[in-house]
Design goal:
By secondary structure, this protein is α+β, with helices and mostly antiparallel strands. It is built from eleven helices and twelve strands. It starts with a helix and ends with a helix.
């Protein structure tokens, strides 16, 4: 990351980690992150603090009261919560439990990533409100989106008009392009469950950058059959083989895979475990979207085919290039 980008992070998010670790459960003092020890410590009484053993509605975690569990996975849970100083406000609190949270390097990377997320300000990217880490957990507090994911849109067969699919792509590309131009930031986990449509019809992208995995976790996604870490059905071949090679073209592939799923109800490649998906990707071509959805306009089908190319060099090479193509496709289909 270049010097200018580093300055941007510091200027725009320098206050994110200041007095944002909650209050001490013993004396009410402000909690602070002891980065050397890798844990939270009260600045008043010195008491160390970890998350409650059981996280459930009613529990106070930091400065937030948990209201309702919104979802759970192998590594943690997401809760609807309210700030202690504003009972009417609603936020989403994501708790990640992992052994890696105790590692000093993991905590340092987590804090840095939270600062990067705090620097993003875009109407289609869910914004970060708060973040902290201690020996057993990492916590992300973010904007709460009252809506449904693209996964649910497809599962419940709501359907999206073709012109709206193109518009959805344009909006997503605009958000990803913004993050790349501002901070050289990759998402690396674009998938239907990370894109929501709220009750007003606004598109919101979740987990922008927060879903970035540590190298050990990314390796696990490739070597452990049945592992839920990562999103194999929406990852490019180069990201599967070496996450360090993931670039803009990898995110472009993942967006293409997401739109393919919206149109067809299935990802480009699927399997019972990550290794099976990887084997399919190596041995087979993507079934052209027009074979499954004959009503997809030819220009959109052609673009999706190139976004899903096995070779990254055959895909659109930048968000700007993709945006220009989508603008042409959108105008042509609006007029048709």
């Amino acid at each position: 990351m270049g010097e200018d980008i580093e300055k941007t992070i510091v200027m725009n998010a320098g206050e994110l980690q200041t007095a944002s670790y909650g209050v001490c459960a013993f004396c009410g003092g402000a909690m602070a992150l002891d980065e050397e020890a890798g844990q939270l410590r009260c600045s008043a009484c010195g008491q160390e603090q970890s998350a409650p053993v059981e996280l459930k509605p009613g529990v106070i975690l930091g400065r937030y009261r948990l209201l309702k569990e919104l979802g759970a996975g192998g590594m943690g849970s997401i809760f609807l919560c309210a700030p202690l100083d504003d009972a009417n406000a609603r936020l989403a609190l994501k708790v990640i439990r992992t052994a890696a949270a105790a590692d000093k390097v993991a905590i340092s990377r987590f804090v840095r990533e939270a600062r990067v997320m705090g620097a993003l300000d875009h109407p289609n990217i869910v914004h970060l409100v708060d973040a902290w880490s201690d020996r057993s957990i990492r916590v992300i507090v973010m904007e709460y989106v009252d809506g449904i994911t693209l996964s649910k849109v497809v599962k419940d067969q709501y359907g999206i008009a073709m012109i709206d699919v193109i518009q959805l792509m344009r909006i997503c590309v605009g958000a990803f392009s913004y993050a790349w131009e501002k901070l050289q930031l990759l998402h690396r986990d674009i998938k239907p469950s990370n894109i929501m449509i709220d009750k007003e019809g606004n598109v919101k992208i979740l987990d922008f950058g927060i879903a970035k995995r540590l190298d050990a976790e990314e390796s696990l996604a490739l070597t452990a059959p049945g592992s839920t870490v990562g999103s194999p059905g929406f990852m490019s071949l180069e990201q599967f083989q070496d996450s360090r090679k993931a670039g803009v073209q990898s995110d472009i592939y993942s967006l293409g895979a997401t739109i393919y799923f919206v149109l067809t109800g299935r990802p480009p490649f699927d399997g019972d475990n990550p290794l099976m998906v990887l084997d399919y990707m190596l041995k087979n071509d993507v079934v052209p979207v027009e074979q499954l959805r004959p009503d997809v306009p030819a220009d959109l089908a052609d673009l999706l085919g190139r976004m899903l190319a096995r070779n990254a060099a055959e895909r659109p090479q930048s968000w700007q290039e993709l945006a220009a193509e989508l603008e042409t496709i959108y105008n042509a289909n609006v007029q048709s």
